[in-house]
Amino acid sequence: MGDIFDTMYDFFQQEDWKFERMGEQPILRMGINGKNGKWACYAQAREDQEQFVFYSVCPVNAPDDKRVTIAELLTRLNYGLVIGNFEMDMRDGEIRYKTSVDVEGDRVSHALVRNVVFVNLQMMDRCLPAIMGCMYGGLSPQQAADQLETQGGLPQ
């Protein structure tokens, strides 16, 4: 397929992760069982752009009437993050955390894949209770963000 795809594929095989390839696309899908929930992840090789991207997709979409509230929460969570970001599709409420690396002029390695993947998983797992608290628990975005801070903040 390509160097980036081959490296990410080898990484997940060597780490003994269960995954499936998405048709002929350079994308792998896997399920994650975190401390705070279960969600789907996607690893994507963007060979032409020389990029590796990893997504964690929140297990539930934000309901239409909560999307502005969740957008505020995600903005609060994103502020100050160095690696990755939360994003939400305002059309359907899909929430995901994205990490990536551009390897133009270099090569992707198992260490780079590991770093991109594990910071991503930590962030989604750490922030799921705040997201769910805003969606279904009556927390304001400020209250949810403050709860994360009092529980040790966000991984950097």
Describe the structure.
By secondary structure, this protein is an alpha+beta fold. It has a single domain (3-150), classed as Yope Regulator, Chain: A. Helices cover 39% and strands 24% of the residues. The protein is built from four helices and six strands, in the order αββββαββαα. It has a six-stranded antiparallel β-sheet. The longest helix is centred in the last third of the chain and has 27 residues, at 110-136. The protein is elongated and about 45 Å long. The N and C termini lie far apart (33 Å). The relative contact order is 0.17.
Task: Please write the CATH class name.
Answer: Alpha Beta
* SS element count, helices: 4
> In this structure, how is the largest beta sheet organized?
6 strands, antiparallel
Q: What is the count of structural domains? A: 1
The backbone outline, from C-alpha atoms, is elongated
Mean pLDDT: 94
CATH fold field value: Yope Regulator, Chain: A
Q: What is the succession of H and E elements?
A: HEEEEHEEHH
Category from helices, strands and their pairing: alpha+beta
Poorly predicted segments: none
| Strand percentage | 15-25%
- Shape-level CATH architecture: 2-Layer Sandwich
Helix content: 25-40%
Provide the spatial order of strands within the biggest beta sheet.
1-2-3-4-6-5
Determine the N-to-C terminus distance.
33 Å
The total of beta strands comes to: 6
